[in-house]
Design goal:
DNA-binding, eight-stranded antiparallel beta sheet, 8 strands
Length: 224
DNA sequence: CTACCGATTGACT
DNA sequence: GTCAATCGGTAGA
């Protein structure tokens, strides 16, 4: 359930490798759950949290992917090497992706929600909001909480400075319960199950009632 | 230059 | 549940 044991722990410094990202985006999205997303501001202040929700966008074989109709200045980063940040604007807000697969294959994982763990005061300040649950619940809220803007489009997430992703130092081999569902807000390829989130996490985006219904439906299993 | 559109959010009934 | 504000990116005149 809600794991607050990580609060007060230092953010991990060792970034995930290029090889981690250079795989199928559905696998990367699935495996990014539980990882820490870390932001270090110019003055050294750290803000970070645990990724609880991510979506895969599969290059030319996915109609919902921004790169499905070819390269443009906006999506150029997705055509570059894996492990770089792809930051784009939607409805006047920023969203953060991690580029996956190889050069010339424009796929990525959208990081949709995070459980705030470190630097919560700073994230509250950036969001103009106190409520911990809503600080990074949604891709644009997450970017606002971490002050991720167009400035970080193309940023190398494997360099381990300013913005990176690392293994959870508190996980200790624990297995996460993960649910797979349709992606949020996409207008094409709506049926594809390319959204992944941690079961029961209150930091996952979407309406609570919808989440609970979907949750129980997907968890129902025939007795064995 | 103008005219849309959207991987969103927050306010509202 | 509904709805519209918001503005960067993009296409087209």
């Amino acid at each position: 359930m809600i794991d607050v044991s990580a609060q007060g722990i230092d953010a991990p410094r060792t970034p995930l490798s290029r090889e981690f990202y250079a795989r199928d985006p559905a696998i990367v999205a699935r495996e990014l759950l539980g990882k820490w997303l870390i932001r270090q501001a110019a003055d050294g202040a750290i803000s970070a949290g645990r990724i609880v929700e991510a979506e895969a966008y599969l290059s030319s074989r996915d109609r919902a992917c921004h790169a499905t109709r070819g390269k443009s200045p906006k999506n150029a980063t997705m055509f570059g090497p894996a492990g770089h940040a792809y930051v784009y604007a939607i409805h006047a807000r920023w969203c953060l992706n991690a580029v996956t697969e190889g050069i010339g294959v424009p796929s990525a994982v959208l990081i949709r929600a995070m459980e705030p763990l470190v630097g919560i005061d700073l994230m509250q300040l950036r969001r103009g909001l106190e409520k911990n649950l809503d600080l990074a619940r949604g891709p644009a809220r997450l970017c606002a909480a971490l002050d991720v803007t167009k400035h970080y489009d193309g940023w190398d997430l494997t360099a381990g400075r300013e913005l990176w992703i690392a293994d959870d130092p508190t996980l200790n081999g624990k297995q996460l319960k993960i649910i797979r569902s349709r992606r949020v807000g996409v207008t094409s390829a709506h049926h594809r199950l390319l959204r992944f989130f941690i079961a029961g996490s209150p930091y996952v985006s979407g309406r609570r009632s919808v989440l609970t219904a979907r949750h129980s439906a997907l968890f129902r299993r025939p007795a064995t």
